[in-house]
Specification:
Blueprint lengths: L14 H14 L4 H15 L5 H13 L4 H38 L9 H26 L3 H16 L5 H16 L5 H4 L8 H20 L7 H14 L7 H9 L7 H11 L9 H9 L4 H30 L5 H28 L3 H16 L4 H16 L1
InterPro entries: Chr_Tranpt_l_chain, Chromate_transpt
Protein name: Chromate efflux transporter
GO molecular function: chromate transmembrane transporter activity
């Protein structure tokens, strides 16, 4: 595929349009955060041209570097770029809603997703094909010379050798430093530094609010079991987690299991249910909030969801203007090129585990994914047709 050079369309997308697009993604995006990123790239870079390749990758790099759910932060940022604050709210609420509602129902006693296993397996196969398509396209566009290929390979090696929540941060920071040293030929026009569409003062306010709430959450003066305590407990977990949804589990366990709010059995049951729904892993908070607040489970789920997602969004709002400011400095284009290459390496590692390891379990699965990938990458078929094909295959294999 040739490099994506088409310019983004103007930033005037209505709230309802953003909401409906992200709702569809929230209903179909199985496979974890890396698969979500692949879906976002195909939807907003390849098909709708809302973002350029470089702007998308810069947003992704920033979200990978910050604590919180990277794919949800990326969706929120895309929504803001297209529709301002309301656009960000539309993107977050729509992408989160399906999995949050399903996990709330599970907490209320709907204990099985009856008959959905074949459908879920079909959607996992779609995720493998979508991520493979996104990864190959990004590698061609962002690692087109030897220097950036070396940076991507070093990021892959680092993640493979040091599998911790901090390794992603080290890889992105290392990519920036290597880019500064090796990618001197990069220019600001090539890297297209992104510009947030809000006043920098909003970033300062968001940063101060993030820090203030974090300080209060570390003290958490509210009694255990109250809504204030629930909000701050989940806020602390969302503010301190690096590396994605699975890394937040120990923090949540210490907040709700060790304190006796949720039994270990109920916690593990909810975690298992979270694996079977689309959307972000952080919506596990919906289940926990409902289990903790049995007298008003919907309110408990809502408070927990807001608490765990809010810190990542506040930090993102605070950091984006700083990124624009840093772009004025010499050498920033080279650093961005290095970061982009490192992000390709991160995606390559995550493509293998968990996307491939959880999606492909047989040679038949491999054959279905191959057909889906060819349809997406070579034939450029609409993703919806490929999704329907994989769902049909999953259902037929489950008969």
């Amino acid at each position: 595929m040739s490099e994506n050079t088409q310019q983004p369309t103007p930033e005037n997308t209505p709230f309802l349009t953003i909401f409906l697009i992200f709702l569809r993604l929230g209903l179909t995006s199985f496979g974890g955060p890396i698969a979500h990123i692949g879906y976002f790239r195909r939807e907003f870079v390849d098909q709708r041209h809302w973002l350029s390749e470089s702007t998308f990758t810069q947003l992704l790099a920033i979200c990978q570097f910050l604590p919180g759910p990277a794919s949800s932060q990326l969706g929120f940022a895309i929504g803001m770029q297209r529709g301002g604050w309301l656009g960000g709210l539309a993107a977050f609420s729509a992408f989160t809603l399906p999995s949050a509602v399903l996990l709330l129902l599970f907490a209320l006693g709907v204990n099985e997703f009856v008959g959905l296993t074949p459908l879920i397996q079909g959607l996992k196969l779609v995720a493998v094909a979508v991520v493979a398509d996104a990864l190959l396209s990004m590698a061609r566009n962002l690692c087109s010379d030897r220097q950036r290929q070396v940076i991507a390979l070093m990021a892959i090696s680092l993640i493979a050798l040091i599998d911790t929540s901090w390794s992603q941060l080290i890889a992105v920071a290392g990519g920036a430093m290597l880019g500064f040293a090796l990618c001197k030929q990069a220019s600001l026009s090539q890297t297209e530094i992104l510009t947030p569409n809000y006043h920098p003062r909003s970033g300062v306010i968001a940063g101060a609010l993030f820090a203030g709430l974090l300080m209060v959450s570390l003290i958490n003066p509210f009694p255990t079991g109250t809504h204030g305590n629930l909000f701050l407990s989940f806020y602390e977990a969302g503010a301190l987690v690096f590396g994605g949804g699975h890394v937040v589990l120990p923090l949540l366990e210490s907040a709700v299991v060790d304190t006796g709010l949720v039994s270990s059995e109920a916690y593990l049951a909810g975690y298992g249910a979270a694996q079977a729904v689309p959307g972000p892993m952080f919506t596990f908070a919906s289940y926990l909030g409902a289990v903790i607040n049995t007298s008003s489970p919907i309110l408990g789920a809502t408070v927990a969801l807001i608490g765990i997602f809010l810190p990542g969004f506040l930090l993102l709002i605070a950091v984006l203007p700083l990124w624009k400011k840093a772009a004025e400095h010499r050498g920033m284009a080279a650093m961005v090129s290095g970061v982009n290459a490192a992000v390709v390496g991160l995606l390559a590692c995550a493509f293998y585990d968990p996307v491939i390891t959880s999606g492909i379990t047989s040679m038949i699965d491999f054959a279905i994914v191959t057909v889906a990938f060819v349809a997406l990458h070579l034939w450029r078929m609409p993703a919806m047709w490929v999704i329907l094909f994989c769902i049909m295959c999953g259902v037929l294999l489950g008969l």
